[in-house]
Amino acid sequence: MPATLRCSSRRESGSPDGRVLLGCPDNRLLARLDRTTFFGIDPLNSEACTWCGDHVGPDDGFRAYELVGGRRAVFCRLEHIIPWAIQGSHWGAAGVSESAGTETPPSRCSHCVAQLGEGHVLLVRHRGAHRIADGFCSVTHMRDWAKAGGRWR
Length: 153
Known about the structure:
By secondary structure, the protein is of the alpha+beta class. It has helices at 28-32, 81-86, 139-147, and strands at residues 47-48, 55-56, 62-66, 71-75, 92-93, 121-127, 130-136.
């Protein structure tokens, strides 16, 4: 067994074979990373995709809101809306103060162009500082719109 150095001082932060000890206060690996993120993921501000569980940053992905029911879902990709809707649309609770982040919500369904009723679904694309909203009569219309390619059909 090779002997490893204990991190007793700030200068001793590695083993004889060049490995870095993770418990050291001056760890070279962690010093190179941005301290607010871990491998590109911000654990304080990211959310998990409702479908696959991957991390979705605050300026990326899609957020679906059912405003009347106070429910929401987060997606890392547009394609994840389709299996989520097919398997029963499992929503999470939206925060009381949480808003969709759009100034003027859509008034018509992006799929069938009908006037939106009170129980509509709002899908907001987060792209950097931009928020792009689409409204739908139902989850089914949102699924069909996503299946057809969304805005790029």
